[in-house]
Amino acid sequence: MSRQRLIAFLTALAVAIGLAILVPLASTASAAGCTTAYSSSAVYTGGMTASYNSHNWLAKWWTQGETPSTGGSGVWADQGACDGGSSGTGGTTGGTGGTCNYPAWVQGHNYVAGDIVKYSNGNYYKASHDNPGYDPTISTWYWDPFGCNGGGTTTPPGNPGGFVVTEAQFNQMFPSRNSFYTYSGLTAALSAYPGFANTGSDTVKKQEAAAFLANVSHETGGLVYIVEQNTANYSHYCDTSQSYGCPAGQSAYYGRGPIQLSWNFNYKAAGDALGIDLLHNPNLVQTDAAVAWKTGLWYWNTQTGPGTMTPHNAMVNGAGFGETIRSINGSIECNGGNPAQVQSRINSYQSFVSILGVPAGNNLSC
User: Do 81 and 125 belong together in one domain?
Assistant: First the structure.
């Protein structure tokens, strides 16, 4: 069996049993150059790398103070031995002199786990699962952490310093928020979905950020509630028809986080997309701020819910704020179902775009 087919087979097997897998770049006879040395005081977000004990390591999600290893929480993925030299001399960077020679991404082309492509934004992406040409910025792909064009670690997209909402504006939007919902947790989560609030004009970017935060505000009472308040519902969120069941317990999949992620199948889907085992560890959504924010961004960027498009697409394609409501809770609130709830979301959105200094746009209701 060829190595490529073996990787595809093992990846499919891992997905079938509910495991997330990161496939390392193809190895060569010489070790890769070591990236920046690990620091226990540094914050690492998904896609960032560090070297430790002569190995390069990849952070799957937000972490701080956890020494790179294959144990612990599983946040670190071993990328193989490194030789301490420049990472731009062949090896894992895919070319000589630090220049990547990977092909351009082609929509609709069948890719297998481990394939690396150059996207239209100039960044390189690596497939973590087989897929039929999905856009590299969606959840079935991971940012290539090794960098190109000179070697070293590439800065992940969605740099917190470039987020269109400042910390002061965030605090103005949520003056009574729970301390769990940190601004740093939100910015740490942005690397998971680099297109979020980073697509289109400056106005569209700010409108999308405002739309996401307005819906989040409605779902959590102004970022006050971390978990669903009606405990009587907790046991209802286990769909026993799923082959993987509810390994964390019958009542473990209640609403958590900014979008109130619920149901075992949603925890599994979000965890698989983010490279975090949320099916077995759903409590991470209420104990790790970056994980909580990532689940919200996962829904926003990849799920249509009862709507016809993702909330992200609704905002960047001009469908309007009303379509984000439809995608989140349209079956209950839209088409006259609960106009007061719809208006509450609209009010928050109008307040937030005002803080960001952009118009609200059209089609606010559903």
Answer: yes
